[in-house]
Design a protein that fits this description.
Its EC number is 2.3.1.35, 2.3.1.1. InterPro entries: Arg_biosynth_ArgJ (IPR002813), ArgJ-like_dom_sf (IPR016117), ArgJ_beta_C (IPR042195). Pathway: Amino-acid biosynthesis; L-arginine biosynthesis; N(2)-acetyl-L-ornithine from L-glutamate: step 1/4; Amino-acid biosynthesis; L-arginine biosynthesis; L-ornithine and N-acetyl-L-glutamate from L-glutamate and N(2)-acetyl-L-ornithine (cyclic): step 1/1. With 400 residues, the chain is an alpha+beta fold. The protein has two domains: 263 residues, L-amino peptidase D-ALA esterase/amidase; 115 residues, Roll (Ubiquitin-like (UB roll)). The chain contains ten helices and 17 strands. Helix 7 packs across helix 9.
């Protein structure tokens, strides 16, 4: 599947982190997961540049790998990232941080670089220490099979999956001779306040670290932060962006931000489509708000409201629930001017009943909600999903 950016540029989901020049990756079975599925990923930047940036969870409870990666990124460069699924290494105390440090040291030793040049990410059950007797040999196994083919990219994206059903990756090849690729994982506990669960993005463009950091934050704010599956901001949320500069093409921050935003938006659409128990893909647009921040806040209240989410699941055009949710948002507007449109049907007009509910057909997978506050000129869109039987069953059947 591709998403048009310009007549000459497309997002392609057949490859990911290894598509940009200068990167190798691998995903292997380390034995961390009892299921025996792939659970350890390594992404290596072979240079010649090593600029890197990251955004992390705003949750006060931060996992050890988040604390580690935040610390090493103060230097603004990474030569490799190691990620594991099957254990979050969150709420594990000083010992958990030591485990993260050992993980970074192990990969650094194998690659003959410094531990302070290694990013670490983990995902899985909170509160349990990692099985280091599986993690450390797993790093050896991953480094032994590093490569830059599309299969290596897919393997890397697969080994970070937890409750995800499919791997999520994408690449954008720019006509000017540089590219950007990445993978993401996340299906539940998704209400990112920086990123989603885990994502690694690579580029062979030449761009300095301060600009890399700036454009990443801007792009995340417009994409990953606009996905809200269930209101849960994870302890481990991380997005890392690595630049090899291997294309030799210097890119303006504006051009790079546009491409990064397009790539990230595609990854977010894949996350939405694979959310836990999803049967509906819901887009909530709030327009004519006083500020963009208020538009986002109103859309998020609707996205997280269980009564709205269950109505979406039932294909029920119950606009009263949406009006109720918007009324609880920290957003200034006149209720007598409120308009709500569901899949093109103006079902609420001027704060009251619009067309008959039967005109709002929500029977398909896609539901488009447009809320007009008539309070300004700002707008924002948040993506969410429905609250289904499957979501409840999946999240009550096991610890996550």
């Amino acid at each position: 599947m591709t998403l048009a950016v310009t007549p000459h540029t497309q997002v392609d989901r057949s490859a990911g982190v290894t598509a940009p020049a200068g990167f190798r990756a691998a995903g292997v079975i380390a034995g961390i997961k009892p299921s025996g599925k792939p659970d350890l990923t390594v992404v290596v930047n072979d240079g010649p540049e090593y600029a890197a940036a990251g955004v992390f969870t705003t949750n006060k409870v931060k996992a050890a790998p988040v604390l580690w990666s935040q610390q090493v990124l103060t230097a603004g460069k990474l030569k490799a990232v190691v990620l594991n699924s099957g254990g979050a290494n969150a709420c594990t105390g000083p010992e958990g941080f030591q485990d993260t440090h050992k993980t970074a040291e192990k990969l650094a030793d194998v690659l003959r670089v410094g531990a302070a040049e290694i990013g670490v990410c983990s995902t899985g059950l909170i509160g349990e220490r990692l099985q280091m007797d599986k993690v450390l040999p797993g790093i050896d196994a991953a480094v032994a099979v590093l490569g830059s083919t599309p299969q290596h990219s897919l393997d890397a994206a697969t080994a970070v999956m937890t409750t995800d059903n499919v791997a999520k990756q994408a690449v954008l090849i720019h006509p000017d001779g540089w590219s950007i690729g990445g993978f993401a994982k996340g299906a539940g506990m998704c209400a990112p306040n920086m990123a989603t669960m885990l994502s690694v993005i690579t580029t062979d463009a030449v761009i300095d670290q301060p600009h890399l950091d700036h454009v990443l934050r801007n792009a995340v704010g417009k994409t990953f932060n606009r996905l809200d599956v269930d209101g849960g901001t994870s302890t481990n949320d991380t997005v890392l962006l690595l630049s090899s500069g291997a294309s030799g093409v210097t890119v303006t921050p504006e051009t790079f931000e546009a491409a990064l935003t397009t790539l990230a938006a595609d990854l977010v659409k894949q996350l939405q489509a694979d959310a836990e128990g999803v049967t509906k893909h819901v887009s909530i647009t709030v327009k004519n708000a006083a500020t963009e921040a208020e538009a986002v806040a109103a859309a998020k209240v609707v996205a997280e409201d269980n009564l709205c989410k269950t109505a979406f699941f039932a294909s029920d055009p119950n606009w009263g629930r949406i009006a109720m949710a918007v009324g609880n948002a920290p957003t200034a507007f006149d209720p007598q001017l409120l308009d709500i449109t569901l899949n093109g049907a103006p079902i609420c007009v001027a704060g009251g009943k619009g067309v008959d509910r039967s005109e709002a057909d929500l029977s398909g997978t896609e539901i488009d909600v447009v809320i007009d506050l008539h309070a300004g000129s700002a707008s924002a869109t948040v993506l969410t999903t429905d609250l289904s039987h499957a979501y409840v069953e999946e999240n009550s059947a096991y610890s996550s």
